[in-house]
Amino acid sequence: MLQPEQAFGETLRELRMAKGWSQETLAFEAGLDRTYISLLERGQRSPTITTLYSLAAALGLSFPDLAHKIDHHMRRHGRKNH
Amino acid sequence: MLQPEQAFGETLRELRMAKGWSQETLAFEAGLDRTYISLLERGQRSPTITTLYSLAAALGLSFPDLAHKIDHHMRRHGRKNH
Questions:
Q1: Distance of CA A33 to the CA centre of its chain
Q2: Which residues of B touch A52 (CB under 8 A)?
Q3: Per-residue pLDDT of chain A in tens (82 residues, 90 and over written 9)
Q4: Residue of B nearest to A7 (CA)
């Protein structure tokens, strides 16, 4: 099973790339640092609920919608023993 | 509008009390410190996604279910200008 911060990081990268956005663009839209986005996408930081709300809003999602996507990613990859 | 960590803290307290649990019991079930639970419930700490997963599991909820309850609480209290 993936750790929550890994599932989050991979989900964040997928959502960002689906928009065709660079890390810089996402950072700007969410009011966060580009280097922090990079650490989050690699699962090297565990986002707080405040960061989750900011990123969801930047991506045009509600916080519960983002939570569903993260949880789905974690369960899907958990079954493959990644 | 409530801040995310305030909405989370108030939701956590409601969920804990609905189970008739003390902060000590919730801390034990979630593998966290009692003093940290107290800070979270008062909105004085912003939980990470790892903490959100631990607390959801301790309360018998999925992470998306907990996210829905937090978001609902935030929106409900936002309308009352709390």
A1: 14
A2: 4, 49
A3: 789 999 999 999 999 999 999 999 999 999 999 999 999 999 999 999 999 999 999 999 999 999 999 999 999 887 554 4
A4: B49
